[in-house]
Amino acid sequence: MYIVQIASECAPVIKAGGLGDVVYGLSREMAIRGHTVEIILPKYDCMRYDQIWGLHEAYRDLMVPWCDGAIRCQVLCGWVLGQLCFFIEPQSQDQFFNRGVYYGCSDDNLRFAFFSKAALEFLLKTNKRPDVLHCHDWQTGLVPVMLYEMYQYSGMENQRVCYTIHNFKHQGIAGTELLWATGLNRAEYYFEYDRLQDNFNPFGLNFMKGGIVYSNYVTTVSPHHAWEAHHTEIGYGLGHTLHMHQHKFRGVLNGIDYDVWNPEADGYIPYSYTVEKLDIKAKNKRALRDRLLLSQDDEKPIVAFIGRLDEQKGVHLVHHAIYFTLGRGAQFVLLGSATESGINAHFWHEKNVLNDSPDCHLELGFNEELSHLIYAGADFIIVPSNYEPCGLTQMIGLRYGTVPIVRGVGGLVNTVFDRDYDEFHPLEERNGYMFYQSDNYALEFAIDRALGLWHGDPEGFKDLVIQGMKYDYSWNNPGQDYLAIYELIRHK
């Protein structure tokens, strides 16, 4: 099968969050299975050029119709960790992707509308006819719209689209200028509730809604998050649209790269270990304490948090977890960066308060090497998110034998099964701890149960660790799921 991924990110060359990891991981999995995969991306001035091998010109003068004229583009080609990527570079005074940032500009809607148009134009002009276009998030929501309304009449009538939503919160809203710029025109046609009109803003066109309506299949990044988006406020206004298209909507759990996250061959940790040689993990715990100047006290477990410090990740619970853990005689390690100045200032204050504690270290920022060591050295990883479409932290924790303590939302529900209360898995298949409410008491009860097992039943804790390490959250299973979706839509 010939698959083209169209996205605004691909790790490690362009990465602002989990989207980049998914685009690369899924592409690699499909290539391993013998399929032809290409990735189309914007050429940002701030992307990691050192992660591209053999960058060269692939198409010199791609003229992309835009507004009342056309914008000339250069398309470059190179390999990112073995995956073939095309980078679209508009040569325009608008400098669409020469902003020093990936997102956050006032004209983001037009920037990515142009990218979507240019990606289709590139496929058309180079006579590339993939079986499936796999588009991601609001930035590429217009690809299936333009494919169905325009490009199918120019020789692309056989291409099918799978559209994956990673975050419902950001949907992409524009007005009539979008229709004029892209050549879709016909405002009265697209400003219909069953097409692009935003469900709550009659004067807005919604990119993500367009992706849902026009795609052949729609996915989000975990089964439980699909339910949340369909039936709760987590869909951010798109619940009814998902209901109207529920026959082609489901959740497919993301995977993690088991070559990158592998305690048996991780170059970032001092001591490699496996489920059969689990005792070696304790050496990484000592190394972590040395690195962070924590006391070497074998009577204390380490609870860790790794991730963004923002409202989505439940920062109020992260803050409470620090002091509750310390109060229970355990150690706490945090690695994270804040996205808002107020949250950043709050955690810098906490860092100064706790700076002399031999049982706590707050590392504000992000450090890839240190994240691996924390996963390998900690006993527990806490994920108290307000919402979590999929979540990678808990999967990585399980891979490293670090027991997750999570809130029961999104993909966390699909990957962590509470040792004490899960009704759907026998004890020998449970792998962590879960709480559902977003208050301090729920968090405390989960941490208490986890620390109680560590202190009171070391063999039971070891069994829980081993059970978690045996789960397969690689790209193998989601790869098979997506392959089945591709096969389904290409024969429609």
From TrEMBL:
It comes from the Bacteria. Its EC number is 2.4.1.21. Residues 297-451 form the Glycosyl transferase family domain. Synthesizes alpha-1,4-glucan chains using ADP-glucose. GO terms for biological process: glycogen biosynthetic process. This is Glycogen synthase. Keywords: Glycogen biosynthesis, Glycosyltransferase, Transferase. It holds the Pfam family Glycos_transf_1. The gene is glgA. It is an enzyme of class 2 (transferase). GO terms for molecular function: alpha-1,4-glucan glucosyltransferase (ADP-glucose donor) activity; alpha-1,4-glucan glucosyltransferase (UDP-glucose donor) activity. Transmembrane segments: none annotated. Belongs to the glycosyltransferase 1 family. Bacterial/plant glycogen synthase subfamily. CDD domains: GT5_Glycogen_synthase_DULL1-like. It catalyses: [(1->4)-alpha-D-glucosyl](n) + ADP-alpha-D-glucose = [(1->4)-alpha-D-glucosyl](n+1) + ADP + H(+). Residues 3-243 form the Starch synthase catalytic domain. ADP-alpha-D-glucose binds at K15. Pathway: Glycan biosynthesis; glycogen biosynthesis.
